[in-house]
Amino acid sequence: MFAPTPRQAVQDLRLSKIREVANAGLGRDDILTFWFGESDQPTPEFIRRAAAEALMQGRTYYTHNLGRADLRQSLSDYLTRLHGVPIGPDRLAVTSAGVNALMLAAQLVVSPGDRAVVVGPIWPNVVEIPKILSAEVEVVPLEPAQGRWRLDLDRLMDALTPDTRLLVVNSPNNPTGWMLSPDDRAAILERCRRNGTWLLCDDVYERLTFDRPTAPSFLPLATPEDRVIGTNSFSKAWRMTGWRLGWMVVPPPLLDGLGVLIEYNTSCAPDFVQEGAKAALDHGDAYVSEVRAELAAARDQVLGALRAMPGVEAPQPDGGFYAFFKVGGCADSMALAKDLIREVGLGLAPGSAFGPEGEGWLRWCFAARPEKNAAGLERLADYLSRR
Ligand SMILES: Cc1ncc(COP(=O)(O)O)c(C=O)c1O
To answer: In tens digits, what is the pLDDT along the chain, a chain of 387 residues?
Structure first.
C-alpha cells in the first residue's frame, strides 16, 4: 500500500510562523495584535454599498475568466493615470487577490528546477509559491544602513545569472518597508532583458508611500513586449483584505494563457465583489489619500516611540505599513514573540517568519488606530523595562 502523502515539494514548504504565533495567542482576548498585515478599520462604506447593491440585485453568477470588462477598463484608466503610461485592458486580468496573482504568475513562467531570485526578507508566500512548482529560490538580502533598508545592487546583479528564470521584487517591501530606488530600476530591467529573466513586481503596497503618490515602478519603464509581470491587490490601499480581489499586468501575448490558468484555478472572481472594486477605482482617490495620511501619522508615532526605547533599532520604512525593528540581544524572534504574548499580551510577527534574513527582528503592522498603537507601545516599553 502507498502512504497517503502529498508531493515532496509540498512536504518541504515552510509553515507560516505568523500563524504559529497567532495560534500561541488563541483563546486569549486580552492580546493587542499587530501581527497581520491589515488595518483595524473595515472597508469604506461607498465600496461596501456598491457591492451590497450588486449582491441584492442578484449578481451572483460566474463572470469572465479575466474579470468583468468594465472593471478591467477602470483598472486600465487607474493604472494609466497612476503611472503615466498607457496600460490597456489587453494587459489586465482580475485575480482572486494578490496571493492568487503571485501563484498565477509562477504557473505562467516557472517550471520544475527553474532558478528564482527574490529580494528579502520577504512575506513567506513570495518564496514558497515558486517552490510549490519545484523551483529553486535564492534570497538576496536587504541590509539596514544609516537608519534605512537598502539593496546592494551589485549583490543582486551577481545573483542574476543567465540561468535565472524569475526575479521577484516586492517594493515597498513587506516586512522592511524598503522601497526600490528609481535609479536602480533601469539596471535591473536591463539585466533581466539580457538574460531573458522574468521580472515579477509585487506591487501590493505601491500606494502606501509617504512622500509620493505611488512607489517607483517598473511599469513605466517596461514595454508591453518585456518579460515583466505586475501583481497587485485591492487589499491594502482600499482596506479590502477580506474581499480577496487583485489583478495582474502581463504582456499581451500572455493574456490568453492566463485566462486558461484562471479557469483551472478559480474560474473567475465574484461579480458583486468586482462591483465593489470598480467603486474603489472610480471613486476611491480621496479615500486612498486619507489612508496614506493616516499611515504617515502612524509611522511617525510607532517609529518615534520604538526608537526612544533602549536597545531598539528601528530603520525608517519608506513605504508600506510595517515597522521592522530589532530588540538588542534577541537571537530568537519566535521565542521573543511568544514571550511578548505571554508576558504583556502583545502580538507581533517574528522576523524569522520572513526567512532567515529576518531572524532577530520583529514586525509591527502600524495600520491601526492611534489609541491601539499607543497601548501596544506601552506594553512593549513595559516588557523591555522588566527585561
Ligand atoms: C508582499 C505581499 N504580496 C502580496 C500580498 C497579498 O495580499 P492579498 O492576497 O490580500 O491581496 C501580501 C499580503 O500581505 C503581501 O504582503
So the answer is: 899 999 998 999 888 899 889 888 888 889 999 999 999 999 999 999 999 999 999 999 999 999 999 999 999 999 999 999 999 999 999 999 999 999 999 999 999 999 999 999 999 999 999 999 999 999 999 999 999 999 999 999 999 999 999 999 999 999 999 999 999 999 999 999 999 999 999 999 999 999 899 999 999 999 999 999 999 999 999 999 999 999 999 999 999 999 999 999 999 999 999 999 999 999 999 999 999 999 999 999 999 999 999 999 999 999 999 999 999 988 999 999 999 999 999 999 999 999 999 999 999 999 999 999 999 999 999 999 987
Domain CATH number, residue 266: 3.40.640.10
Residue 107: in which H helix or E strand, if any? Answer: helix 97-109
Give residue 263's identity as a one-letter amino acid code: E
CA torsion sign for 227, 78, 102, 15 is positive
CA of 93 to the centre of ligand 1 (A): 17
Q: Kindly state if the Cβ of 97 falls inside 6 Å of ligand 1.
A: yes
> Is the shortest distance between the CB of 120 and ligand 1 below 6 Å?
no
Whether 271 and 162 share a structural domain: yes
Whether residues 30 and 173 fall in one domain:
no
Same domain? 155 vs 26: no
Q: Is 202 in the pocket of ligand 1 (CB under 6 A)?
A: yes
- List the domain range (segments joined by +) for residue 359: 8-43+286-386
| Residues paired with 198 in a beta bridge | 166
